[in-house]
Design a protein that fits this description.
This protein is an alpha/beta fold. It folds into two domains: 2-145, no CATH class; 162-252, Endonuclease, Chain A. It is 41% helix and 17% strand. The protein contains eleven helices and nine strands. The strands form two sheets. Strands 3-2-1-5-4 form a five-stranded mixed sheet. The chain has a four-stranded mixed sheet with strand order 6-7-8-9. Strand 6 (165-172) and strand 7 form a beta hairpin. Helix 3 crosses helix 6 (127-139) and helix 4 packs across helix 7 (147-158). It is elongated. It starts with a helix and ends in an 11-residue tail after the last helix. The model has no long low-confidence stretch (mean pLDDT 92).
Length: 263
C-alpha cells in the first residue's frame, strides 16, 4: 500500500530500487522495509523525505515492470543489499538471486549467474564496495534458497564447521529418498533447516494438508536414516542464533575443524 501511495502521488513515475525493488521481486528481506527506495538522477533536486529514500544513482541494465511498478533489474538490488546488510543477510539475498527457482515476480525462471553479477560489481564506484560485494558473491551459492539455509551456512562458517555439500541426493534401496539441505559426507550427517513455510504455503503443500506434509516428512526422514545416516534438524530460532546453531551441530557430531570465517 505504501509503494502504491508513492506511485500514485508522484509527478513522474518513480524507479523503485534497493529494498523496495527486492520486496517487489520477492527477494528475502530481514524485515518489511519502513522506507521506500527510489533512484533519482543527479541534480534532480529531490530529497529524501516523507518516507521515501531518494538515492542519486543510475539504473544499470534494463528496468522491468512488476505489478505496475517500474523496478531495477534483480541483479542491482541483490548487489546493493549485499552492501547494505551484514554478511548473513547479504548472503541470503545473493543466494536467492542465484537460485534457479523463479522469484515470485517472475512468470518463468530467469536465473542469473555469478559472472553476470561480477560484471555489475565491477561498475561499483569504490574499491571498498567492490571488495565487500565480491566477498558476498564468492560465498554465495545458488543451491541455497531459503534464508534459514543461507544464514545457517554463514554461521556454520563463522563457527569453524566443515563446509557441507548442499542439496545432496540421498538414495536408499527403493531409489531416490530425499534431497537434503546439508550433508557432511565424511561423518555421514544430514542437516535439515526446517522452515515452517513447507507446512503453510501452497507452493510447498502442493495440494496436501499440513498433516500430510508432516507424515511425508516422517517417511522421508525414516528413509534417510535407513541408509545409516544421522539426521539433525533445526528451526528458524536456531538458524538466526550462531551460538544455538553451534550447540546443535556440535551435539550432532558435525566436524568443527575449519578456519572460522571472520565478518
Amino acid at each position: 500500500m505504501t509503494l502504491q501511495a508513492v506511485l500514485r502521488t508522484s509527478t513522474n513515475a518513480p524507479l523503485f530500487a534497493e529494498e523496495s525493488a527486492a520486496f517487489l521481486w520477492g527477494l528475502p528481506l530481514p524485515e518489511t522495509p519502513t522506507m521506500v527506495d527510489t533512484l533519482v538522477p543527479q541534480g534532480s533536486g529531490r530529497r529524501t523525505g516523507n518516507g521515501v529514500r531518494r538515492i542519486v544513482r543510475p539504473a544499470v541494465g534494463p528496468c522491468v515492470q512488476i505489478g505496475g511498478f517500474t523496478v531495477t533489474g534483480k541483479i542491482q538490488p541483490a548487489v546493493e543489499l549485499a552492501l547494505r546488510y551484514d554478511l548473513p543477510w547479504a548472503v541470503a539475498v545473493m543466494d536467492r538471486a542465484l537460485n534457479a527457482v523463479r522469484l515470485p515476480a517472475e512468470r518463468r525462471a530467469n536465473p542469473v549467474g555469478k559472472p553476470e553479477i561480477a560484471t555489475y560489481i565491477e561498475s561499483l564506484p569504490t574499491a571498498r564496495a567492490r571488495r565487500k560485494a565480491t566477498r558476498v558473491l564468492d560465498f554465495a551459492n545458488g543451491l541455497a534458497m531459503l534464508p534459514g539455509e543461507s544464514l545457517s551456512r554463514v554461521h556454520m562458517a563463522a563457527r569453524g564447521f566443515e563446509a557441507p555439500e548442499l542439496q545432496y541426493e540421498v538414495h536408499d534401496s527403493d531409489g531416490h529418498a530425499a534431497t537434503v539441505d546439508f550433508y557432511w559426507k565424511a561423518s555421514g550427517i544430514v542437516g535439515e533447516f526446517d522452515g515452517l513455510t513447507k507446512y503453510l504455503k501452497p507452493e510447498y503443500l502442493q495440494g496436501r494438508t499440513a498433516s500430510q506434509v508432516v507424515i511425508d516428512e516422517k517417511i522421508r526422514e525414516d528413509r534417510i536414516r535407513s541408509t545409516g545416516r544421522h539426521v539433525v534438524r533445526w528451526l528458524w530460532e536456531t538458524a538466526v542464533s550462531p551460538a544455538a546453531l553451534e550447540r546443535c551441530l556440535r551435539a550432532a557430531g558435525v566436524p568443527q575443524n575449519a578456519t572460522p570465517l571472520v565478518f
